[in-house]
Amino acid sequence: MIDWTTQVVVVTVSLLGAAAGAAGTFVLLRRRALLGDVMSHAALPGVALAFIVGTGIGMGRSLPALAIGAAATALAGAWSVSWIRRQTRLRDDAAMAIVLGCFYGLGVALLGIVQSMPQGQQAGLTHLLLGHVASMTRVDLWSVLLGATVVLLFVVALFKEWRLLCFDEAFTRSIGRPATRLDALLMATLGVVIVVGMQAAGLLVVVALLITPAAAARACTVRAGWMVAIAAAIGAASGAGGALLSSSAPDLPAGALCVLVACAAFGIALCVGPAEGVLWRGLRRWRLEARVRREHLLRAMWELSAPSAGPARDRQALLARTPVSVASLLQRRTWSGPRLQALIRREVRMGNMRWGGAHDRVSLTPPGAAEARSVERIHRLWEEYLTRRADIAPSHVDRDADVIEHVLGPELVAQLERDLDRRGGGALA
Amino acid sequence: MPLIHDTPATLPGAEHAADAAICIHDLTVAYDGRPVLWDIDLDFPRGSICGIVGPNGAGKSTLLKAILGQVATTSGRVLVHGASFDAQRRLVAYVPQRESVDWEFPVRAVDVVAMGAYPRIGWFRGVSRAVIEEARSVLDRVGLADLAMRQIGRLSGGQQQRVFLARALMQRAQVYLLDEPLASVDASTEQVILGVLGELRHEGRTIIAVHHDLATAAQSFDWCVLLNLRVIASGPTATTLTEANVARTYGGRLTILSEAAEALRQAASRGSA
Amino acid sequence: MPLRVFTPEIDGWIVVVGALAGAACSIPGTWLLVRGRLMAGDAVTHAVLPGIAGAFIAFQSRDPLLMLAGAAISGIACLLLAVVLERALRVDRGAALGVAFSAFFAIGLVLIVQGADRVDLDPSCVLYGALELAPIDSVSFGLFAPGGPIISIPRAVPTLLVALAACAIASWVLFKELRLGAFDPGFAAAIGARPLLIDLLLAALVAMVSVAAFESVGSILVVALLAALPAAARMLSSRVGTMLLLGPGLAIAASVAGHFVAVAVPPLFSDRLGDTSSAGTMALMSGLIFLACALLGPERGIVLRVARQRQLQERIAREELLALLWRSQERGLAVEVQDIRRHFVTMAVGRRASGRAVRSLSQRDWVTSSNDRLALTTSGEREAARVIRSHRLWESYLAEQASIRPDHVHATASRLEHVTGDDLAAQLATETNATLDPHGQQIPRE
Questions:
Q1: Measured between CA atoms, how close is C332 to chain A, in angstroms?
Q2: pLDDT digit string, tens, across residues C306-361
Q3: CATH of residue B78
Q4: Cβ-count burial of C224 within 10 angstroms (0-12 exposed, 13-18 middle, 19+ buried)?
Q5: Does residue A252 share a domain with residue A183?
Q6: Distance from C231 to chain B by nearest Cα, in Å?
Q7: What are B123-178's pLDDT values in tens digits?
Q8: CB-closest option in A304, A325, A390 to B248
Q9: Which in A156, A165, A243, A264 has the greatest CB count within 10 A?
Q10: Structural domain tally of chain A?
Q11: Apex C237 CA angle, C234 and C243, nearest 5
């Protein structure tokens, strides 16, 4: 049975993860993934300043004051980044690094003052950096609940506008949407996540949950709406997973575990994500290469039969009996000897070819000849299509397709075949 | 009697001239299952100005990158002066598209031009005064002598293109690969670039340029490759850049076709005059 | 309370260590800046944690060399991971860095907690660093022969000197390769200059300086030094070589100013406050130095640019006013101040600009005013004629040579007239050869 404290932690961290994942998606789409990192570090001087001022006017350590201070300097950091970019022609990453380093430096200097204050030792401000997920309180739960609700409401309400802003800022302006204000709202949302998250879980967890779930979602889908949803789900799952893991292994820091769970999700998404999964891409590439090589072999066999031989059906019959020397195949294309041997062996195994002589000649079997004819036909049809439909062709050509009709539709293929016949391309159908 | 067809004369590889500047055989480049270049067999003759012409997305820039070994190929090989690109790197100069660099970079025009000499200088050694002097004289050749000390971003687009050409000249290569050298440049830059390319050809060097503008292709190049995923036609401009071939390359794009037909008429009338 | 007395043994060494750290950081920082990869510095400074903790746990010793080696290895590994994610797996550049360094940092935290019962290592020490403690942690060695004078210097000094020397030598020897790899990686690849190898070298330099510097200034403050000092140098120069030389100079300034602020500022608020973190104030000072350079820099400085823009605006306002007065006199109309105001508002120049323009014209004795009515003086007429002339020449040119409809040329000509010098006007005059503009008005002669 999970105890009450753990339940609080799990719920809080997963809410935080959902909010961070959703907000982080837009920041990633805006190609400023590290802005969350910059703003989190820039929040530090605000916290320290709020503490110093709060103590100075006798309020002591007041949570709302710390939150307001953190949000103020975090937003000032975001504004500084865009100011530097606009005014100095330095690039994004330079502006971000300057702001991150210098705001943080100010924060450290102010923390140094806090430490030397009599009340400073109990301020407990350092945990903001490394987190204290396990010792979360109900105040944290409520503040995260409030913050996450606000963030998710904003995301739902402004989804359309933010998506437009991320995709094409100039267009957003041109249709009269207030791009600057939309951007500011996005930053404010980010600020909310950072402030409640730092208080509850620490800077590291917030930064990781802003970036990693969004990057993982990017590999899963190409649609922004799904991306937001998936990122929120991965964020929530990482939060819950990390908290649960740490409850079973209390020596391990819960915050770091959340981060590592998110990273694992990212790794899995990257490998098998339906949109950009490395595995699928590699597989596609490997299949295509194998296919191209096989086509080259079969077409080389086809071409090496008498070029002037009559109609395709007779030629197919002739071809099935004609041995071709491996040496001439080798010259035909840019393949190495061993690779060609491997290709032939594979076709022999499949019953499409047979060896002749002392393995220095090969010939097609009747099914192999039919296969070669079909490969040649598809190749010719694609060529014909590229010529006929040159305006739209490149985006539609799919060499990976077994049946050209599936890609182009039977009517178009019939039309292409008629054109091919008319131009004397040889009756391959 | 078994028919054996292995006489060299019938092999498609045989028509590849051994003395071609660049010889491409069997080249297929695919991106995520979509072919970008498909079974390319091409020779670029030495000492000519070759244009690679074709619609957007036809794989023109990819072809240059494949020659330079900068994209993974699915099959095929590329020979530069009869050997692989890696072995012949010194023979090839490359002028990328203008968008590919950061123009705010703190570097002067003359420094950029001197970069063309880096393969000769080698690692770990500095750029000598002689190289800088040579870079200045090359800048003079493209008409930018007085802008040598200016930061690269403070030149106009056409001037930047000329700096890139000057950098390629510094490489003292045999084969020059240019990616859209005449895209959105001013008239005087176009004149300078075409003039320099003509000089290079006169010296027996080979120029291969990706070109998007059919209207000027006929007068700029003496060898043409019409490309749309595969090679539609290649050969001397006069016989290759025909209305029929252009139609097969560009398909139903009427506007381009009429533009091309106009260009061809102009070229024909100039040829007869 | 008076300022505490600066002591060379303490404060002197703090400033020296800070300046050395800043100088060492500024060199790879310059390369990262021009390569557009400054946030990689942030990633490395986080990513050193697992290396330090790992070396600690594996060898059970606090040997600084072992820790430096571990930190450098994990820093480079993190950058490599980010490069693989970005290049091979097509993850967004920022996201790739973010994922990589947060994972490394988390692993580092887990390692520290795991090894906590055996070793004591405080992660916040890695984050903050302690420049103030640098003079205490010192090494002593005999000078010349045994028995000679023994000197004692902070351990950070030789470490940072080695890092600084390594960066300086690498930048000197491989200057052209580093610059080429940063400027045009595609071209570098084409000529066989191996941009990936250059990037790797840069990653190694960054890892080395952050490792050497984080002990004294703290890892995240390394980011400030890596970024702000080279960026400040960029504001002052548009050549990489000059930037590399300016960096260390700016580092000395940041270190001196930073330590002074750390000591002098807290007591201003309360007597009971001691010094604050010199590393923090040094980072802050390097940021302020950047700001100052951005504002006051030559050529690209913001102040200069704003001033130039303002001058141009004022000249446009003056010329608009001259043209208005000329046209009114041509038609025999009197011009009052409120007419000018109205005209300027419709021209979107602004109400206040009109007052300034009137004042500036009177100062130059180009207009005289009586009872709120303005009239051009002789010298004012000459100036106005010049403006009107270039306006009408442009109108003729645009209508004749550029075939723009006569009713459309006014707006374009109004913009161009302000940037037309005498040479250009003369050229326009020879090309158009007109005496009347497209609206049939006289073009004033010179």
A1: 44
A2: 888 888 888 888 888 888 888 888 887 777 777 777 777 766 666 677 778 888 88
A3: 3.40.50.300
A4: buried
A5: yes
A6: 12
A7: 888 889 999 999 999 999 999 999 999 999 888 888 999 999 999 999 999 999 99
A8: A390
A9: A243
A10: 2
A11: 65
